Amino acid sequence: MLASVAAPVLAQPPSGSTESMAQATTSDTDMTDAQARAHFRLGRQAYEEGRFADAAQEFEIAYGLSGRGQLLYNVYLAYRDAQDLPNASRALRGYLAAVPDAEDHEHLQARLTSLEASVTADQEAQAARDAETAEQRRQLEDAERRALEAEMRAQGGSSGPTTSRPWWPWVIFGSGLAIVAVGVGVGIAAGQDGDALRRSCVTQSATTGLEQPIVAGTMCSPSVSLDSRRSSITTEAAVSDALWIGGSVIAITGLVLAFVLPDDVATADGTPSVSAGCGPTGCSGSVTVSF
Known about the structure:
It contains 7 helices and 6 strands. By secondary structure, the protein is mostly helical. The strands form 3 sheets. The protein has a two-stranded antiparallel ribbon with strand order 1-4. The protein has a two-stranded antiparallel sheet with strand order 2-3. It has a two-stranded antiparallel sheet with strand order 5-6. A hairpin with a 2-residue loop joins strand 5 and strand 6 (282-288). Helix 2 runs antiparallel to helix 3 (71-81) and helix 3 (71-81) packs antiparallel against helix 4. The longest helix is centred in the middle third of the chain and has 52 residues, at 105-156. Residues 1-17 have low confidence and may be disordered.
């Protein structure tokens, strides 16, 4: 619900769509909140330029600041044209609830039903693909296990002692890398949360807020708990640092152990290897066990 009678016709929706931004009835003059009006205009500009995801975010902020339910129609159209069906469905559902007497309500309700059916179908298809991938991974692991067992049985038929490198340092090394990866992931999530918070907060009514720092006194959408989200982002960043530093230490430790530890020695069937000898100063013996 963006364009008024005096507003220009905006970007046309994808082929096959029956609703367009030009059908909207909300304009920037309908909003008394200066910040909401600024985000509304940014959303309109982004939509006209074909940046539908950015337009949806700006309309969401304008809605949070103004509370005008009609803006959810703009949010729906922008998400729809960005091919983000779950969010488009959410926005349209909210619009129909906020504006029950909306024009063409029955048609929009039918559109919502169709969207929800598409979202459900996509989720089921993704679940099926995930299950197929998991089954393929299990089959591969079974094949590798059987190959390893066959190799061990073949080695069991030979005589004499065998040597092998210790395997457990590589487990330590891999665990360290996994912890580093988790730390990096948490760090990326913290950065994304910070960016999202910046988009929701502005320090001046004439700015967009996209480049403003997150500081005390910042004006935010009514739905944003600034202190809580800032604390959460700080915690995520600290956890990220701890994970990747600790994981790096563990990985380096495992790598060093893998190269400096001596080989394991055992007979082919896993029994201890025994050696003995005598010299001018006496006799000695040793037993080496691999497990």
